[in-house]
Amino acid sequence: MTQMSNVPELETALARARQKRAEEADALAAPHSGGMDAYFAADEAVLMVERALAAARGEAHAVPIDFPARWSAGAPLPHLLRNDHRAILLFVVEQSDPVWDGTTVRIVGPATEADIAMVEFTQCVSAKLGMPNDEAFHGHPLAGRGLRVYGAFEVVFSPWIAELAAINAVHPRDDPASWAELRHFILGFHDSTFECVARGFRVETKRGSIADLLEEACRRLVA
Q1: Could you tell me what percentage of the chain is helix, strand and coil, using 3-state DSSP and rounding each to the nearest 5?
Q2: Element (H, E) at 9
Q3: Is this model's pTM higher than 0.90 or not?
């Protein structure tokens, strides 16, 4: 895509991209359509223009980040623990089974052994895990501004960081510059959405169960 900074041009480009996506969605029912690949390409084009338009307007928008662990789309079982300065998020990692024929259902629970991601968010000032789920994700304030479900994102021009900074401005030792070092992260799961404001994160993947690794996460937080 040609780089554009003119808002009217970007608005026109977004309308065209959304029309193309709608056409590809309708074409999925046709016998000779481009299939899901064509739809996903059209959807990605929409997201790119959404981000460019929001950036040109100076508005909040979500940009994808390089996240080293991919969570299960079906039952990621996210769990969040935190103290005053750190947050630890656990979830089941997506796993492919080459012998699975699609005729059975694998039930995953907190005691099921699997590959578990343990994500530690450092210098975390706020974190939440809850609504919306994937069926209501289009109601998120950043939907239509580069955000999609089942992805890892960072929010540019984050209103949440601005809100927290304004609240803390009354503190006698508040350092306004320190807020520029914080980042707003979003991870969209099947039944919930995780968001936090932190300085950064690190990811480990371990074999075990959610139940077992919750104990390890608790020990880390109190160490």
Answers
A1: 35, 25, 40
A2: helix 7-27
A3: no
Going by their DSSP bridges, the two strands 61-64 and 79-82 should be labelled as unpaired
> Tens digit of pLDDT for each residue in 43-59?
999 999 999 999 999 99
Cα separations in angstroms, 117 against 71, 106, 112, 127, 220: 8, 19, 14, 17, 15
Q: pLDDT digit string (tens) for 21-78?
A: 998 888 887 766 667 888 899 999 999 999 999 999 999 999 999 999 999 888 899 9
Classify residue 89 as left (phi > 0), alpha (psi -120 to 50) or beta.
beta
- Name residues whose C-beta falls within 8 Å of residue 128's C-beta, 6 or more positions apart in sequence: 80, 194, 195, 196
Q: How far apart are CA 175 and CA 161, in angstroms?
A: 14
Which residue type sits at 121? F
If DSSP codes are grouped into helix, strand and coil, which group holds residue 32? coil
> What is the rounded end-to-end Cα distance, in angstroms, of the chain?
49
